[in-house]
Structure to design on (411 residues):
């Protein structure tokens, strides 16, 4: 991956879909753009890796066809279904659509590997990529933003005119910009395991487990079944996952031959509160760092707002006004706030406790 | 991919500050990860300069 230079027009922090979509808008601009990523690339993000219909349509409009190597099996997901822990017959019920932001539809989604998908998106942007590059902090100066990073273990400073925080839920760009917001966030722990196993749930659907204070997901991916547990209450995510496994063993014939992976992630409640933070001056937040996560469909929010940040920076360069002036008025951003709010209400109506 | 903190810990506390769910505790001679609470997100590993956070 690229060595770092001292100066850039734009530094994008984070190689997820938000950072990649922002970078793509600079493709033919002649600007010097780098995506910095704290992990080695390709990096995996804990995610079901379902490209929902809205994201699929965005990609069809703005990108070449998705390459074969990013898909897992089954390749498409028909829709979503759910089981309730408190239903003693444990019936498998249908949700009206995969995409909660849209009206009921039978639109399908894609089942992909996030590490391959995200790297493909970044490469499609044509931006320089620097991995093992952790943003520590930054300072605004009259002419520049000075960014402190740890790159391959070495502390360095790099400068840019614009800084885009696409650094996800634990966003250091957001933390420095709004310490009060950071203090107010509540954190949600998620844990998942992948199994070689048998289960009586048919592949090709996204399954949700709904419990009184928690929810989880079950998804066939390649040879494995992924079971994920998200908890907001006193129970630990690890314990919750054990309860899901016991429930599925008793009710849905789950027989685990081998556990192939365990991992977890943390999210915060900014998206559920609709407390979006767009940035300040020429420092913009995008995707999950800004609080944009449509219910069960964070990839669409990341792509859409990523495009909007990039376009806003380009307009700012032409006019001399700040990037935030454009970003806060951008039609995609204004619409995305409404769509996210609506999708979280819908999620609550459908019985997801975290909504 | 469970993590643990080795004797290389220099008690700087960066890891505990970074952990959003407070799963890292000061045990006097070093910091330690509460395994039941930790979900292995890895956030602490990026702020440890002494290489003390390792996968088990
Ligand atoms: C369990 C789970 C399942 C999900 N399933 C789906 C799904 O099936 N479909 C869907 O659409 N959405 C899903 N989501 C939501 C989706 O994963 C996120 O909303 C989406 O990844 C957000 O994209 P992003 O680009 O904003 O951030 P991310 O994808 O999180 O990318 C942020 C990047 O920034 C890097 N980074 C962070 N801090 C720094 C730093 N200081 N310096 C340098 N780099 C840094 C990170 O390593 C990461 O690569 C799921 C979420 C979870 C938790």
């Amino acid at each position: 991956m690229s060595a770092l230079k001292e100066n850039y027009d734009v530094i994008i922090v984070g190689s997820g879909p938000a950072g990649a979509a922002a970078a793509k808008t600079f493709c033919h601009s002649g600007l010097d753009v780098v995506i910095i990523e704290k992990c080695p690339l390709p990096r995996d993000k804990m995610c079901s890796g379902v490209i929902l219909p809205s994201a699929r349509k965005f990609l069809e409009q703005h990108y070449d066809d998705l390459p074969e190597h990013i898909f897992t099996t089954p390749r498409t997901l028909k829709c979503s279904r759910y089981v309730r822990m408190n239903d003693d017959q444990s019936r498998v019920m249908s949700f009206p659509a995969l995409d909660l932001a849209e009206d009921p539809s039978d639109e399908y989604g894609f089942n992909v590997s996030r590490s391959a998908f995200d790297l493909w998106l970044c490469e499609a942007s044509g931006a320089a990529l620097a991995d093992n590059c952790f943003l520590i902090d930054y300072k605004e100066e009259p002419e520049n933003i000075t960014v402190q990073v740890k790159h391959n273990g070495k502390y360095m400073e790099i400068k840019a005119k614009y800084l885009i925080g696409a650094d996800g839920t634990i966003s250091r760009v957001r933390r420095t910009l709004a310490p009060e917001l950071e203090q107010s966030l509540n954190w949600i722990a998620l844990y998942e395991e992948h199994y070689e196993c048998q289960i009586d749930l048919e592949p090709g659907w996204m399954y949700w487990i709904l419990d009184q204070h928690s929810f989880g997901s079950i998804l066939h991916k390649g040879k494995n079944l992924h079971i994920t547990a998200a908890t907001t209450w006193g129970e630990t995510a690890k314990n919750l996952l054990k309860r899901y496994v016991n429930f599925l063993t008793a009710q849905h014939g789950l027989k685990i031959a081998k556990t192939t992976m365990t991992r977890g992630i943390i999210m915060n409640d900014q998206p559920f509160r609709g407390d979006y933070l767009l940035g300040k001056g020429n420092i913009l937040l995008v995707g999950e760092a800004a609080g944009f996560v449509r219910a069960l469909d964070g990839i669409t929010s990341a792509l859409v707002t990523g495009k909007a940040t990039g376009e806003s920076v380009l307009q700012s360069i032409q006019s001399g006004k700040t990037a935030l002036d454009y970003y806060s008025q951008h039609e995609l951003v204004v619409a995305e706030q409404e769509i996210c709010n609506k999708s979280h209400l819908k999620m609550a109506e459908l019985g997801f406790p975290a909504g | 991919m469970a993590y643990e903190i080795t004797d290389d810990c220099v008690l700087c506390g960066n890891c505990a500050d970074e952990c959003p769910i407070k799963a890292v505790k000061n045990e006097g001679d070093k910091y330690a990860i509460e395994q039941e609470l930790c979900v292995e997100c890895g956030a602490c590993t990026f702020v440890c300069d002494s290489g003390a956070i390792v996968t088990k």
In short: Residues A 13-19, 36-39, 43, 45-50, 52, 55, 134-135, 166-168, 172, 190, 228, 265, 267, 287-289, 293, 297-299, 302 surround flavin-adenine dinucleotide (CB under 6 Å). The mean pLDDT of chain B is 95.
